[in-house]
Design brief:
alpha/beta; globular; seven-stranded parallel sheet; 247 residues
Length: 247
């Protein structure tokens, strides 16, 4: 229970990697605020599971992260429910292809908004509370921040900017707040069928461990950065089975 008495706010917490992160932090003793946008049923189900294990330890909040003016409400909600904020995990993300020559302004705004703008302004909103408790921010980046993914131009540059934001926030918010990132590799395929079986096999062949990872791999890395990495800030940990070495 290394996070007992601490409070974590996780964006995009109802599904996939966000759900695994929330589950891992809660199991380590943290109270959790589960942000969601569309996945209402999953978010309420997850909170119910957590509260059955430890009463009054989880709360849900719905918000569109593109509505920047409302982001301080997430922080205020965490403080009102649990008395403070120790951990902010910027996990929520949009991901879809934007090939050169076909990019639309709306797509640019959405991908940059969820992957860069929202983490920036949510971190800014949380900074005062996090400083009070010498807290931490953990951004879920992507190995394609360093090595762009073909046909995903806007997503790649948005994640590259998020990597830069992670380092810049560490500079701006230290020494009271540590800021780090986790860059997933082959963890969870998109639900839209954009990566067929042949593509998946080819990607996995380029992964040094020759296998797909699991959301739990990311969750364990987040827990490490949140609870055991007191002298680490401004760093981005690739959790990718070695794929970024061999792209």
């Amino acid at each position: 229970m290394q996070l007992a008495g601490k409070t974590a706010l996780i964006t995009g917490a109802a599904r996939r990697i966000g759900r695994a992160i929330a589950t891992r932090l809660h199991a380590a003793g943290a109270n959790v605020v589960l942000h969601y946008l569309h996945a209402e049923a999953e978010a309420h189900d997850l909170a119910a599971q957590f509260n059955a294990v430890r009463a009054n330890s989880a709360r849900n909040i719905r918000a569109d992260l593109l509505e920047t003016d409302r982001l301080p409400e997430l922080v205020a909600f965490a403080v009102s429910e649990f008395g403070g904020l120790d951990i902010l995990v910027n996990n929520a993300s949009s991901f879809y292809p934007t090939p050169m020559g076909e990019i639309q302004p709306k797509e640019f705004s959405e991908l940059m908004g969820t992957n860069l703008k929202a983490p920036l302004f949510l971190s800014q909103a949380a900074a005062v509370e996090l400083k009070k408790r010498r807290g931490t921010i953990i951004n879920i980046v992507d190995i394609h921040a360093e090595r762009p993914l073909k046909n995903y131009l806007v997503y790649s540059i948005a994640k590259s900017a998020l990597a830069g934001l992670t380092r810049a926030l560490a500079l701006e918010l230290g020494p009271e707040i540590r800021v780090n990132g986790v860059s997933p590799g082959v963890i969870a395929w998109p639900d839209d069928g954009s990566f067929d079986e042949a593509v998946r096999e080819r990607v996995i062949r380029h992964t040094l461990l020759k296998r797909q990872g699991d959301p739990e791999d990311i969750a364990r890395a987040v827990l490490f950065l949140a609870g055991e990495a007191g002298y680490i800030t401004g760093q981005i940990l690739a959790v990718d089975g070695g794929r970024s070495v061999n792209i």
